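Lab notebook page, bench 4
Experiment: in silico fold of construct C2
Operator: M.H.
Input chain length: 706 residues
Purpose: comparison with the prior construct
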Amino acid sequence: MVTKLENLGILCCLFCSFSFSNGMDSLSLHKSLSSDQTLVSKNGTFELGFFSPGNSTRYYVGIWYRNISEKTVVWVANRDKPIVNSSHYNSSLVLSGGNLMLYNASRGVVWRTSFVNSTSNATEAVLLDTGNLVLRDELEDVVWQSFDYATDNWLPGQTLWLEKGTRRIQVLTCWKSADDPAPGIYSLGMDPSSYFELFVWINMTQAKWRSGSWNGQNYTFAPEFNVKSMKGLRYGSDQRSYYLIYDSSGDSTLTRAVITPSGVMRVLKWSESKNSWLEKLYVVDNNGTGTTFSKSKGSSHFIIPVSVIIPLFLLGVCIFTIVRRRGKFNSTGTEQQEHNLLFYDFDVSSSVNSDHIAPADSMKDGANKELEFPKFRFSSISDATNKFSIANKLGEGGFGPVYKGELLNGQYVAVKRLSQNSGQGLEELRNETILIAKLQHRNLVRLLGCCIEKDEKILVYEYMPNKSLDSILFDPKKKALLNWDTRVQIIEGIAQGLLYLHQYSRIRIIHRDLKASNILLDAEMNPKISDFGMARIFGGNEFQANTTRIVGTYGYMSPEYAMEGRFSVKSDVFAFGVLLLEILSGRKNNSFLLSADYTNLLGYVWNLCERGKMLELIDPTLQVPSSSSKPLRYIIIGLLCVQESPDDRPSMSDVVSMFNNKHMELESPRRPAFAAGRTALSESSGTATSEIGSVNNLTTSVMEAR
């Protein structure tokens, strides 16, 4: 607790502070470090100052490597007490009253050092070349050091210790996420009951991983971890504690150990040639069940006859073998290997960007033949997503949440965990894995693997950093990211993906659930069609089918499918038309439900067409080139796609031709399905077939830039 006298001392330090320049390695009494200043260790390796991690708007005081391109924070002072928003401009690091304090003008003392010896009086704070921040007294004795208050990194020269009397231990605790340095659920340290054995704990109660016993020079790692040694560790003891020290003497490269938000211990070295951190060692728990850990372990003794133990043991082995082998065989009877997602290396560039088009009849072995597909252990998926943490959640659809997962090589994946009450079960999961495994196109999302374990049904996709189209298009603050050229790129990319599904893939596929939330965007805003759980395969000469199970999303369903259960490629064309008009307008199809004049977006567009004001549909936030004739042409193409009769709608091949050939004449669209206004719907039960005038001479119209 800060006294009034201490507050007065801090204010005096700030008021009387001498000018401070970057490049110094120490902070003495009567000086403060403001938010735009830093301390730099003598050899320039480490830097201390204010920073904001990732996409966070919160600020922290931390230490990071100074001369490498990838900002790597190794220690955080106020990791669970951030400075919010822009108030860091009114914050300073102050050495006052023998303590180092983080002071904020509006909040007072946010963070401060604490001493084991309350009589210690620091007169200088120094950032050492090891990355250790130390406080010294007048005799230059160290009274406090950041190495004793580790966060998630273990640096050379730093110790993990165990106090002999109190059994108190020094641990590394992971960040919650890449954007949040607050303590996560995983910790790394020595087990108080076994001295030098390293453990990774979940919430300090459950053991996730253990190193094996210390043999005097190294750890006897279990064979399943594929780790022969962890060089650079040495142990010792003094009057106060036992300790393990990470020693990299003789190695000039930058090295560090870290416990990641997913509970993985990694030992890394910096590569100047590759300009990145490379793995020296990583160890994970290949089991994702843990054993209960207790700081005070007791023991009980039971006497069990050998005649009972042996039969029980043999029975247990048999049951374990049967359970382990169930579900690991594919349709051909050969064993299907379960992979560890954390260690898997996906060659994304070889197929994700492919434009490969194979003939429709190239599936000589039959459309339903299963392909070998990576199957991942649930425990490894759980580790990659930090136990499906909220911080890793990307969104949630009708069939369950989607999480961001991180692999040991730094690659990201998207993990869709199907909820048990979603209605999408094994049939839909199997359908999606078989379908997408056969497809390769740059405008289709790549499915990387799956997991079917007990009640868990999980799909692993390539990671799309810009998430789904609807999360940007219908967000008033984010839609500005989608300028005119980007929207054209998205529209035409979706069209190319559908054309591939309908005509050029090895099997003809009807998606049946095309909508904005099922369009994912990569780093360059290229669209990728996703979610094939409801898709259906058509034979070589098959173009239409009937079903009694209507699936999909109202608003995107064609009338013949929603009312009669008939679906075809023209059903997807209808959904594409709705999606095209949504992208042009920036409005959802169902955003007119409270309107007195229109039931949906289609009715609104048709009303504009009848009044000759089609360009009013275009999102007013767009800056459209004044010479462009595309806006009007694209609206008309959208209307052609949503006509009542499937026979009147163009194929996706026709749509792509309309996009590519601006001189191609367009037909006059008929009134869209579901486009009648509320009054008209109550007065007439017939199907409207009115047409608007010729549209071809309208294609030369220009739209003034907004």
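Observations: The CA atoms of residues 591 and 600 lie 7 Å apart. The longest strand covers residues 180-190.
Next step: discuss at group meeting.
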